[in-house]
Amino acid sequence: RKSKNTTEPPVLPGAWPIVGHALRFVGDSCHIWNQFNDIGNEVHDLGGVATIHLGPQSFYIVTDPDDSSTILNTCLEKDDIYEFVKPFLGEGLITAKLSIWKNHRKLLNPAFNQSVLDTFMGVFNSQSRKLVRELEKEAGKGPFDQWTYTRLSVLETLGLTSLGVDLTDSNLSTQYLEAVEILFSTLIERFAKFWWHSPYTFAFSNLKRKQDGVIKILHNMSNTVIQRRKSELTGNVSSERSIIAGTKFKAFLDLVLELSAEKGAFNDREIREQVDIAIIAGHDTSANVLLFTMFLLGSYPEAQDKAFAEIQEVLGDGDRDVEKPDLSKLVYLEAVLKESMRMFTIVPVIARKLDRDVKLKNCTLSAGMSCALFLFAIHKLPMWGPDVHEFKPERWLEPGRLPDNPNAFAAFSVGRRMCIGKSYALISMKTTIAHVIRNYRINADHTKLKLKVDVMLKPADGYYISIEKRT
Ligand code: HEM
C-alpha cells in the first residue's frame, strides 16, 4: 500500500518476497510464543516500533510503553484480527466496533462498580473454601495439574457473581472449559496460516468446521445461563441479589436484562454476546493468573513465606473470611499478583486498527494500518532493572524499584478500552490465594516451564504443582 507518510517505522529485517515474515510463524503454539519473544527483542533494538509483513498484510509492532499508551489512548477501534473471534463473540465489548462499543461500555460500567463488587465477597470466600476442600485430595500426593480445579472454581464464581446463576451442579462447565481450549487453538492456528486470514478461504477449511462445532457448545452455555437467570427473575427466586442491597447497582447479567427489557438496549443476540464476553474474559484470564501465581509461589519459597506471614498477620491464625478492609492490607499479596502478571502477561498481545495517523516519539504510523501492542515485551524492558527476568514482588513495594514510566505496566491494557473487570479480578484473586496459601504449602519448579500462546499465554505441559497441608 502506498503511504504519504514519510516517517514510517523501519521494517523488521528478514522479510521474504510475497510471504514477508510469515514463515517465522510456521510451527506450533510454543514456536509462535518463542517468535513473539524474539520479535519483541528485535523491535526493541529498532527503537520500539517496527513493521512486519504477513503475506499481503502488514502490522506495526510496538514495544515502547509511551508509544503504546499514545496508540491505546488515540485509537479505540479493534483490529481486523479480532474478526477471527466474531463468530463466537459478535459485537460484545472486547470485539465490538467502536460505534457500538461506546454506548455499551457506558451502559455496562456500573455492573463493575465497587458497591457491586463488595457484595461478591461472600461468594469469593465460599468459592475459595470450596477450592481448598477440592485440593485436599491432592495434598501430599506429589505433582498434579491444578488446571481443572482452578478454572472450574473461577468459572463457577463468575456464574454466582456477575451472572447470578449456579453452574456448580452441571457438567456444562467442564464441557465449556474443554471447548474454550479447542477454540483458542483453532484461532492461533488460523493466525499462523495467513492464507486462512481471509474469511473466503477460511470458509473451505476443516479448521472452520472444527471451530463451528465448539462455538455451538460455547453458545449453548451462554444461552443456558440467560435462560436460567431469566426464569429465576420471573419466578422471583433471587430478587434479593438482583438489586444489590443499599445501592442502585445491579450485577452484570441482571443489568443487561434490565436494560434490554426497559430500554431495548440489547436484542437477544446482543445479550448472548455480552454474556459470552463476560464468561470468556472473566474466567480464563483470572484463572490463568491464579495458576501462574501459585506456580511462582511454589517456585519461590521465600516469597511464599512472606505472603503466608502477611496473610496470618492480617487475618489472624484462625479461619475467618477475607473481608473488604483486609484487601487493602494484603499489600505483599497484591505485589505478588502484579509481579506474576508482569512475568507472565496472560494477554500478551492486543491490537488496534489505526483510524488516523498517529505521531509517536520517533515515527508516524499511517491511518488504516494494523497495530499489535506487545504488552508482554513492555513488561520485560531494561527499564525494569537488571533483575527484570526474576520474580521479585518486592519491586512493587520498595521506593525507587519500579520504572519511572507509568505506562510500563499494562497487564490490563491502558486507556478507555482497558479491562472493565480489573478490580473484580484483583479482589477475587487476592481472596482465593489467601485461602489457598493459608491452608497449603505449594511446591513447583519454574525452571521446567515451557510456554505457548493460545490467544492467552499458557504453560505448554500443564500447571503442575504439589501441595502439602499446613499444620
Ligand atoms: C487478571 C485478570 C484479567 C486480565 C489480565 C485482563 C486483561 C484484559 C486486557 C489486556 C484487556 C484488553 C483487551 C484488548 O484490548 O483487546 C481486557 C479487556 C476486557 N476485560 Fe479483562 N482481564 C482480566 C479479568 C477480567 C474479568 C474478571 C472480567 C469480567 C468479569 C474482564 C472483562 C473484560 C472485558 C469485558 C474487556 C473488554 C473491555 C472493552 O473493550 O471495553 N476481564 N482485559
Automatic annotation (TrEMBL):
Recorded GO cellular component terms are:
endoplasmic reticulum membrane
InterPro entries tied to this protein: Cyt_P450, Cyt_P450_CS, Cyt_P450_E_grp-I, Cyt_P450_sf, Cytochrome_P450_Monoox
Q: Where in the cell is it found?
A: Endoplasmic reticulum membrane; Microsome membrane
**How does it sit in the bilayer?**
Peripheral membrane protein
Record keywords: Endoplasmic reticulum, Heme, Iron, Membrane, Metal-binding, Microsome, Monooxygenase, Oxidoreductase, Signal
Q: What molecular function terms (GO) are annotated for this protein?
A: heme binding; iron ion binding; monooxygenase activity; oxidoreductase activity, acting on paired donors, with incorporation or reduction of molecular oxygen
Cofactor annotation: heme
**Top-level taxonomic group:** Eukaryota
Keyword Heme part of the UniProt annotation: yes
Q: Give the binding site residues for heme.
A: C419
Pfam families given in the database record: p450
Main location, first listed in the record: endoplasmic reticulum
In terms of PANTHER family, this protein maps to:
CYTOCHROME P450 4C3-RELATED, CYTOCHROME P450 FAMILY 4
What does the sequence similarity comment in the record state about its family? Belongs to the cytochrome P450 family.
The function of this protein is: May be involved in the metabolism of insect hormones and in the breakdown of synthetic insecticides.
Record's protein name = Cytochrome P450
State the species of origin: Chrysodeixis includens
Q: What's the source species' lineage?
A: Eukaryota, Metazoa, Ecdysozoa, Arthropoda, Hexapoda
